Amino acid sequence: MDSSKETQSGAAPETEHQEPHNYLNHAKTIKSWLLTLDHKRIGVLYAVTLAVVFLIAGLLAMAVRVELFVPGETIMDNDTYNQTFTMHGIMMVFLFIVPSIPAILGNFVLPLHLGAKDVAFPRLNLASWYVYMTGGALVVTALLVGQVDTGWTFYTPYSSSGDMAILYMTMAIFIAGFSSIFTGLNFIVTIHKMRAPGLTWNRLPLFVWSIYATSIVMVLATPVIGITMILLFMERLLQIGIFDPALGGDPILFQHFFWFYSHPAVYIMILPAFGIISELMTTFSRQRIFGYKAIALSSVAIALLGFLVWGHHMFVSGQSAISSIVFSLITYLIGIPSGIKIFNWVATMYKGSIWLQTPMLYALSFLFLFTIGGLTGIMVGVLSVDVHLHDTYFVVSHFHYVMMGGTVIALLGGMHYWWPKITGKMYNETLGKIAAGLIFIGFNATFFPQLILGAQGMPRRYATYVEEFTFLHQVSTVSSFILAAGLFLVLGYMMHSMFFGRKASKNPWGGATLEWTMTTSPPDPHNFTRTPIITRGPYDFHLADEVFGPRHTGDGAGDGATEPATPAEREASR
Amino acid sequence: MGNNGTVWLPESASTVAPEVDWLFYFVYWTSIVITLLVVGGMIYLVWKYRRKSDEDRPEPVKESKLLEISWVVVPTILVLLVFTWGFQGYLKLTVAPSNAYEIQATAFSWGWSFDYPNGASVGNELHVPVDRPVRLNMSSEDVLHSLFIPAFRVKQDVLPDRYTSVWFEATQEGEYHLFCSEYCGTQHAEMIATVHVHSQADFDEWLADAAMDEDVPLPELGERLFGQQGCQQCHSVDGTDGIGPTMQGLFGSERTMQDGEVLEADENYLRQMIINPGERVVEGYQAGVMPPYGRLSEREINALIAYIKEQ
Amino acid sequence: MATTTTEKQDVSHEGDGHGGHHPRLQHHFVSLDQQFSSAKLGMWLFLLTELLLFSGMFVAYAVYFNWYPETFAITSEALDWRMGFINTIVLLASSLTVALSIHFVQKGQIKAMLWSLGATLALAGVFLVIKYFEYTAKFEYGIYPGAAFDPSGPYAHMDVPNAIQYFSIYFVMTGIHAFHVIVGMIVFIWLIWRGLRNHFNPEWYTPVELGGLYWHFVDLIWIFLFPLLYLI
Ligand code: HEA
Ligand code: HEA
Ligand code: CUA
Ligand SMILES: [Cu+2]
Known about the structure:
Chain A has 574 residues and is mainly alpha-helical.
C-alpha cells in the first residue's frame, strides 16, 4: 500500500485524481453517502444536517431577539412569538444539541480513538440517522398542520388541551429519542468490545471516557422521555387523565416525568463537550492532562448524580418541601466533580507550551463561559434564591451560558480541531481567530445582560414586557447580531476551506491520539492500514515519536505557524 | 415604583427580601472570586507558558495529590454552607405565620382575581396592608399559572383543582408588579397585575369601599367591575377597537357571528357573552380569547350589563 | 492503496476458535466471538432501555395506586383474572419453547428449532386472541381509556372516583405490552424464514439468541403486569 507514495512524488501532486484513496473520495455518488455504513461518513451526514438545524433554530432566536427590542408588538403577535420560542427551544434541544457532539464528532472520532475499523453496529448507526430524519420530518409536519406553542417543556394541562399539532410533536420527540438510544447503545458496545490491543481503560483518551458517560445517560434516560411523550400523546388524543387535573390526573406528575429525562439530558449535552475540551487543552499545551483519572471518573460521577436532581426545576411547582431540599442538596454535589474538571484543565497548562490556535481559543472561552454558566446554575440551585429567579431571564441566561457557551463553543472548538482530519483541508486561521473573538464578545454581551434582567424580575416566555426592562433587552438584541455575525463568518470560511482550503497534513496540531498519529487526513475508508497496538497513554507526548513528524513539514506545527510545507514534504511525512 | 433596588436586584419591599438578597450576593461574590481565580489563573498560565517555538517539547509534570484534594474539599464546604442557608430561607418562605391575613387568589387565562374575607372581589389588583403578614391561598381555573412579585422575592405556581399558597409581609407602601411567570398561552406576557401596599388605615378604607355594598347602584358597580375584572384590558368604551370589540353603542345593535348568524345585542345576549363567550364568537374576533366569567355573582353580572347598556 | 478496501487484516489477539474468515464475520470485527459478544451486550442494553420505558408506566401505576388504593381494589375486579392467568401460562410456555429453539440450534437440530419457533409464534398468537376478547369485553361495558370511559355502564359499582386513571393505566400498559408481542411475532416470522433458508448453524445463531432474549423480556414484563393489574 506504499505504492501510492511513489506515484505521488514529483509532479503536480495537487491534482485531484492522484489524491490518495480516502473515505471521502472512494465513492462519490449520492447513494454511496445515503447508504454508507462508514462511521466517518455518517458523522459527516450528521454534521451537515445539524448545521442546517442550528441555522434554522438560530434564526428563530434572532426573531425572538428582534421582537424583544422594544416592548409591545415589534414584528410578530403574541401567538407567533410563543410558537417561535417554542420551536427555537425544541429544535435546539431535541434536534440539535442532544445529538450534536456525539453524533458528529463521536461518530467520526470514537472508532479512530479506539483503533477500530468502525463502530460495533454500523447498520444501527446509519439507522439512527434515518430515525433522526424521520423525527425531524415530523417536527416540520407539526409546524405545517398547526401551532405548537407550549414551550419546549410541554407542561400539562396547557399542552394536553391545545392544538392537535402537539400529537406530531410528541411523536417526533419519541422517534428522535430512538436515534439517541441507538447512538448511545452503539457507543457503549464499541467502547467495551472494539478497543485495539493494548488499549486499556486507563489509556483511553478522555474524549472516549466522556462519550462513554454520555452514552450511559442516553441509554438510561431517553426511554423515560419516550414514555412521557407516549403518555402525553394519549392524554391529548384520548384524555386518559394521567396528567389533566380536570379528569383527576396530576400535572405535577408530568413535570417529574419530563425532568427525569430532561435534567440528565443536560449532561448528555455537556459531557461530550468536556471530552472535547480535555483533548484541546492537552494538545495545545503539549502537556499530558492533569488528573487524568479524576477527570475520567468525574464524568461518570456527573452522569450518575445527574439522575438524582431533576426536582430542582420544580422548587415552586408545589412539590413537597422535603423533596425540594433533597434535590437542592444533590444539585450542589454536581458542582464538585464539575469543579474538578475545570481546575484540572487549568492546571494542565502549567509548564506546557501553549499554542493559541483557534481551537484553543474556543477551549479557553469554554473555561470562562462554562464557569459562569455553572456558577449561575449553583445560584438557581439555592432554594430561597431560586424562588425569586425561577422562570426569569436569569434561568434563560444560565442555560444559554452552559448550552451555547458550553456545548456549542466546545463543538465549534472540536470542529476546528478535527476539521483537517474530516475534510483534509485547513481553514483560514486568521478568520478563525476573528470569528472566535466575535462569538465570545457577542455571546457575553447578549446573555450577560439577561442575567441582570432576570434578577430584576423579567419573566421568561414574555412576548412583551414592562418598560423598565427596555434598555437591557436592547443591549441583548444588538449584541446577538455580533454573535450571529461571528457564526456566519465560521460558516463562510468553513465552506470556503472545503473547496479551496490548503491541504492538511496528517497531524497539523501535534496531537498524540491515534487519529493524528496513525491515520491520514482524511482517513482511509478503513481508518487504519494496520491494526494499532497501543503501548502508551493517550497524552504521552514525550513517548510518542510519531507525534511530531519530520521538522518543517507542517506536522506538529499547524497551519499558519510555520512555513507551509511543500507538497512533497507533506507526502513524505504521511 | 420605588427606587431602592441595586444593579442586580429590584427594590426589596418584604420582610424576607433582605435575607434572600443577602444570600444572593453571598453566592454572587463567591462566584466572582471563583471565576476570577479560574480566569486569572488561566490568563497567567497562557502568558507564562506560551509557545515560543515549534520545537518546544515540555516534560510531563507530576500531578499533585494536595491540589486534587483541596479542590474537592473547598468547594464542598462552600456548597454545604450555601445549601444550609438556602434551605433555612426556603423554610421561612414556605411556612406562613399563623396570624396571616388571608386572601383568596384565582388565576385564569389571562388574569387574576382576588377575594377578600369580607366578600370584596377585585381583578388584577392586589391590595394589601403594610407590615402585616398576608397569605394568598391560590388556585387556577384552567392551566398552570404562577404568581410572582419580584419586589417581595416570592413566587408560587398556581394549579387547577388544588390549592397552593404564598405569604409575604410588605415593608413599604407603594405599587409593585405582579407577574404570571408560568407560561400559560397567548397573553401570558400580559397577565400582569399591580400590588398596592397601603397603610393599615388606607387599606381598611379601601376594603370597605371595595366590598359589594348593597347600596351601590348597579351601573356604578358595573363600572367598578369593568375595571376590576379586567374587561377594560380588552374592551374600550370609547369606540376604539381592542382585543375585543368596543362596548360603545353595543347594546341594541345587530351583531354578526362568525358562523354568519345575526343577533340583537339585548340583555340575554350580553349575559351569554359574559358567562360563556366561547359558545358564539363575534365576527372578526378570535375565539377562545375572552375567558368565561361564570364565577361572577348574579348581581355582578346584572351590574355589568347595566353598565354596558349605558355606553 | 486500493487494496486495503477489500483486504481483511485480522490480527487475532483474542482466542479465536472459529478461524478468521467465517462468512458471517463482518469486516470490522476481529473474530466471531467478538462479534457475538458485542451483539449480546447490545441486546442487553436495548432491553435495559425497554425496561426503563416500562418503569415509567410502573411509576405512574405506583403513584396512582398509592393515592387511590381503594379505587384500585375495586376497579381491578372488573378484570377477569382467569383470562390473565391463562395468558400468563401461555407466555410462560412460549418462553420455554423459545429457550428450546436456542437449545436445538446449538445442537444443530435445525428442524426442531424451526418447530419450537413455530410453537412460540403460535402461543404469541393465542395470547393476542385472548387479549382481544378481554378488550372487547371491556368496551361492551363502556370501559374505555380516558374521557370515553363511561362510569354509569353496567358495572354500576365502577362509579368510583379515579376509575379513569386505573383503566387508562391498564389500557396503556397492556396495549404497549401487546405491541411488543406483535413485534416479537414479526421477529419470529423472520427467524423462521431465515431458518428455512439454512442461515443458522451451531457456530452462528446470534439472531435466534437475541430474539429469545427479547421474548423472555416481554414475558417478564407480563409477569409483573399480571399481579399488579389483575390481582391487587
Ligand atoms: C448543558 C446544559 C446544562 C448544564 C451543564 C447545567 C448545569 C447545571 N444546572 Fe442547569 N439548566 C439547563 C441546562 C444546563 N444546566 C437548562 C436548559 C435549564 C432550564 C430548563 C428550562 O426551564 O427551560 C436549567 C435550569 C436549571 C435549574 C432550574 C432553574 C429554575 O428553573 O428555576 C437549576 C436549579 O438548580 C440548575 C442548576 C444547574 C447546576 C447546579 C448545574 C451544574 O451542573 C453546574 C456545575 C458547574 C459549576 C458549578 C462550575 C464549575 C465549578 C467550579 C469552578 C468549582 C467551584 C464551584 C463551587 C464552589 C460550587 N439548572
Ligand atoms: C442549544 C441550545 C440553545 C442555543 C444554542 C440557543 C441560542 C440562542 N438563543 Fe435560545 N433557548 C434555548 C436553547 C438555545 N438557545 C431554549 C431551550 C430556550 C427555552 C425555550 C422555551 O422557553 O421553551 C431558549 C430560549 C431563548 C430565549 C428566551 C425566550 C423567552 O423566554 O421568551 C431567548 C431570548 O433572548 C433566546 C435567545 C437565543 C439567542 C440569541 C441565541 C443565539 O446564540 C443563536 C445564534 C445562532 C445563529 C444566529 C445561527 C447561526 C448559525 C449558522 C450560521 C449555522 C452555521 C453552522 C455552524 C457555524 C456550525 N433563547
Ligand atoms: Cu398565566 Cu402565564
Ligand atoms: Cu436541571
